[in-house]
Amino acid sequence: MKKLSIFSVAFLISTIALFSSFTSVNYNSTNPDPPIANEFDILVKYLESNGNFINSSASPAFIDADVVKKNMKNAKYHLIDIRSESKFDAGHIKNANVVKPTELLSYFDYEIDPAEFDKIVIICYSGQTAAYYTSLLRLAGYDNVYSMKWGMSAWRLDFADASWNKALKSDYASKVGTANNPKAAKGSKPVLKTGESSGKDILTARLEKVFAVPYKESSVKSSVAFGNPGNYYIVSYRAADKYSKGHVPKAINYKPNASMSSTSDLYTLPTNKEILVTGATGQGSAYVTAYLDLLGYNASNLSYGTNGYMYKAAKSNGWETFSKKEINMYPVVE
User: Is 99 in contact with 82 (CB distance < 8 Å)?
Assistant: First the structure.
């Protein structure tokens, strides 16, 4: 009996193995390949499961110039100036470190231990470029990184005169739209081809690719936007009441800190048209632009936001605007 049982079991196992081999061959020869996981979906799920930064109250992550000034001697603050070396040499905040934007990832990986600092502050000319790269670093998992609001324009008047004070314009105030334009229907998603399968690895590959492209390639001037609004799918990333009082023609309102999630309006964004993100100052919208670029969309940021095309109206409406009160006269190292 015992021998018969052993023989029966062996026969059964052999039969199952033989059948399995037949079905395997049949599948590979007659059926299509099994579906490959969509990298875009994996990345979105990973980011939303790990803080969901863009759709949270943590975004945008600004720090004011006066806070930076008070902590210039604080060893727990690390300042990174991403302007050109010539501009840095002409005047920078004491103890700041000059780093090229394209080298930020390697700087965080090999030059510093980010966890040693309470706050790492990214500094640029106007606050917009710093906002873009701060967003990417936040998405990379560095939760202690902040962009200095208004950039060096908030540090001293001469910097403001070279940046923000030149950008405050109302040239297109009479051409703004007020219509409530509808969002597009949910459609296709970007196709990512990193070759990776985990959310973390896809994120790393995408970060390397996006960091390699200068921010200026993701920036659009007001004159271009108003001259050819039909060239873009325009996202007005502002509160609904502000949107209704004036926006770039054809712009569509998307609610801040909520609309860029997979459960909201993310999939209404097109993959076959450049997405132009607009905001009040170009800083908050730069955070969103970076996120969309990371996900594989073709996104750009409207430089200086409403301050750059309807400044006087924005100021009279009590919206966020750059003004003299934002400018300090703090010392620099030359």
Answer: yes
Which architecture does CATH list for 52-168?
3-Layer(aba) Sandwich (3.40)
216: its two tokens: 């200026």
Phi-psi region of 301 (alpha: psi -120 to 50; beta: other; left: phi over 0): beta
Q: Are the C-beta atoms of residues 271 and 189 closer than 8 Å to each other? A: yes
pLDDT digits 0-9 by tens, 75-129: 999 999 999 999 999 999 999 999 999 999 999 999 999 999 999 999 999 999 9
Burial class (CB in 10 A: 0-12, 13-18, 19+), 115: exposed
| Mean pLDDT value across residues 131-148 | 98
Is the distance from CB of 128 to CB of 286 less than 8 angstroms? yes
Residues of the chain with CATH 3.40.250.10: 52-168, 173-316
CATH 3.10.250.10 for domain 173-316: no
Whether the pLDDT of residue 35 is over 80: the answer is no
Contact predicate 104/211, CB 8 Å? yes
What are 275-322's pLDDT values in tens digits? 999 999 999 999 999 999 999 999 999 999 999 999 999 999 999 999
β-partners of residue 247 are: 177
